[in-house]
Amino acid sequence: MTGPTVLIADDQALVRTGFRMILNARGVDVVGEAADGVEAVTAAIRLRPDVVLMDIRMPNLDGLAATRQIVARLPTCRIIMLTTFDLDRYVYAALAAGASGFLLKDVTPEHLANAVRLVGTGDALLAPSITRRLVERFAAESTPPPLHRDLTPLTPRELEVLTLMGQGLSNAELATALTLSEATVKTHVARIFTKLELRDRAQAVVLAYETGLVRPANP
């Protein structure tokens, strides 16, 4: 089989079986399953999958806590959160904890397989505008004080790029806004990720809100 290896963590056996069949039929290797967060952490450490499909609500240890533990132990492992609601309030916390995106449980088979492959390459699953909308909604509800994160390693241009990423601009839109080539924008984005130790674009958007670079719009 080709493509990323996957661990499926969900307390519903029917969901796990269905996702396994869908992914295996499309050439994605499912290396294991877990019925709760504790099992998910143990299996991830043992199997070292490229991607974990993680249900947010599970017994013993929820998906959010499991995500934090897996990301801390396996920095290269990518987490896709599974949720029933497209704006589940826990998804924002999961993105902040290191998840690379989320999927609804009623996702189509093709979208599921494509999402796993996308995240397996190290990209974020969510389109920037969707990520921004999600972060903005729940950041506005909690209105936490700005996070004191050292952004001094960034050049003025990189700081500008990070701010615009937080506003939901794609690479193509960044290139237009800054009158740069898309290749140059990609270079700036990659340097931002490296300097701030960010996993992907989803975390960059969350950071832009938490540091106060971008403010949530009024509800």
Topology readout:
Layout: E1 5-9, H1 13-25, E2 29-34, H2 37-47, E3 51-55, H3 63-73, E4 78-83, H4 89-97, E5 101-104, H5 109-120, H6 128-142, H7 156-166, H8 171-178, H9 182-196, H10 201-210
Parallel strand pairs: 1-2, 1-3, 3-4, 4-5
General description of the model:
- The protein has 219 residues and is of the alpha/beta class.
- The chain folds into 2 domains: 5-125, Response regulator (Rossmann fold, 3-Layer(aba) Sandwich), CATH 3.40.50; 136-210, Winged helix-like DNA-binding domain superfamily/Winged helix DNA-binding domain (Arc Repressor Mutant, subunit A).
- Helix content is 53%, strand content 12%.
- The chain contains 10 helices and 5 strands.
- It has helices at 13-25, 37-47, 63-73, 89-97, 109-120, 128-142, 156-166, 171-178, 182-196, 201-210; strands spanning 5-9, 29-34, 51-55, 78-83, 101-104.
- It has a 5-stranded parallel β-sheet with strand order 2-1-3-4-5, with helices on both faces.
- β1, α1 (13-25) and β2 (29-34) form a beta-alpha-beta unit.
- The radius of gyration is 17 Å and the shape is globular.
- The model has no long low-confidence stretch (mean pLDDT 84).
- GO terms for molecular function: DNA binding.
- One of its GO terms (biological process) is regulation of DNA-templated transcription.
- Residues 5-120 form the Response regulatory domain.
